[in-house]
Specification:
By secondary structure, the protein is an all-alpha fold. Helix content is 69%, strand content 0%. It has four helices and no strands. The chain starts with a helix and ends in an 8-residue tail after the last helix.
Amino acid sequence: MNAAAVMGLVIQSIVAGIMVIIGIFQMSQKEDPVGFYNMIEPPKKDEIRDVVQWNKKHGILWIVYGICIECGFWLGYVMPVDALELAFMMGGVLVPLPFMIIRHRKLEKEYQRSEVGHL
C-alpha cells in the first residue's frame, strides 16, 4: 500500500466514521425527532407518530451510508485499473445519496401525523 492509498484510507475512514457516529447519535435520541440533514429543519415532536422509530430509521440511514463509504474505498483499492478505483471510491460516497433522500421521503409519509400538514 503506497502513501497515497494510506492517506485515502485514513480520510475516507474518518468520513465514514463521522457518518456512523451521526447515525448512532440519531438512533440514541428518544425525546425529539432528528433532522435528515442540516438544510432541513427537523419536524416537531407533535408532527411525528413515533419519534423513537423515526430516529432509529434515520440513524440506520447514516450508518449504512458510512459503511458504503468505507466499502467503496476498499472495493476501489482492489480494482486493477485506476479509473475503476476512482469510480468505486466516488461511488461509495455519491451513489447512496439519492437512495437516502428517497428513503427519507418515504419515512416522512410513514411517520407524519395525518392531522398535521406536510413536514
